Amino acid sequence: MIEARGLTKRYGRVLAVDALSFDVRPGVVTGFLGPNGSGKSTTMRMMLGLDAPDRGTVRVGGRRYRELGWPLREVGALLETNAFHPGRSARAHLAALAASNDISAARVDEVLRLTGLHSAARRRAGKFSLGMAQRLGIAGALLGDPGVLLLDEPVNGLDPEGIRWIRELMKSLAAEGRIVFVSSHLISEMALTADRLIVIGAGQLLADTSVAELSARSASLEDAFLELTSGSTEFRGAGGARRPGDRPSAGQRPDGYPRYPTKGKTL
Questions:
Q1: Could you read off the pLDDT of 153-190 as tens digits, one per residue?
Q2: pLDDT tens digit sequence for 83-131
Q3: Which residues contact 249 (CB under 8 A, 6 or more apart)?
């Protein structure tokens, strides 16, 4: 189990994460949701020891990440799509990761096949498309056959076939009793993939519930999420808050978007 207790992180005057506590249990896919700027990435970085919390702790199986003897064998993570040397081949990148954690070369070939990259194994990773780079990141997360997976926006850049593949993969890994913790901004995808949801806003816990329970609060999971996070949305389109019948304010077009000088040109 992952146990986060009172996680707090401040960057200067910005309080990114505010006394955040939650548990992530094995056997289910847990979605990690929140508006832009809500603290999701900072929280995941603290879970992996990449950022030190100002206060609080996070433990995986009772230990902090830095206390793990062979981290890749226990926790697999995808936080950044292009976390590789662009001049290395996919196989060379994975082989270097494997060597650092005493993982066999045979496992490198296994994850290349699993992620659909076997035919591109000798190509330079810097030439990969966004979707292929994402698959390479997922391969790195799976390399140590870990019991815990932390994935930040894993469907980013994948085509429809790839999205279905990663969705089914996450479900199958959870069914094996692993912890699968997935950060995403795609509410519709979480409705199809996740069993439980941890929702944060402005660095604070807003909900720790099942998908079914949150969906039952409104007409759809998306509506329930938007209602839940309405008070903690940092970035909002100019027209997003207007209601039918509202008069546009000064500096707005009738559709709610800002007026810009056009210098006689038609927008």
A1: 999 889 999 999 999 999 999 999 999 999 988 898 99
A2: 899 999 999 999 999 999 999 999 999 999 999 999 999 999 999 999 9
A3: none
Strand order across the beta sheet in which 14-24 lies = 14-24, 2-11, 55-60
Strand pairing of 75-78 and 14-24? unpaired
Q: Which amino acid is at 187?
A: I
pTM: 0.84
Q: What are the residue ranges spanned by the domains of the chain?
A: 2-232
User: Given 3.40.50.300, 3.30.230.70, 3.30.70.660, 1.20.1200.10, which CATH number is that of 2-232?
Assistant: 3.40.50.300
Within 10 angstroms of residue 32's Cβ, the number of other Cβ atoms is: 25
Q: What is the pLDDT of residues 119-129, one digit of tens each?
A: 999 999 999 99
Which residue in 25, 27, 1 sits closest to 171, CA to CA?
Answer: 27
Q: Structure tokens of 127?
A: 């030439």
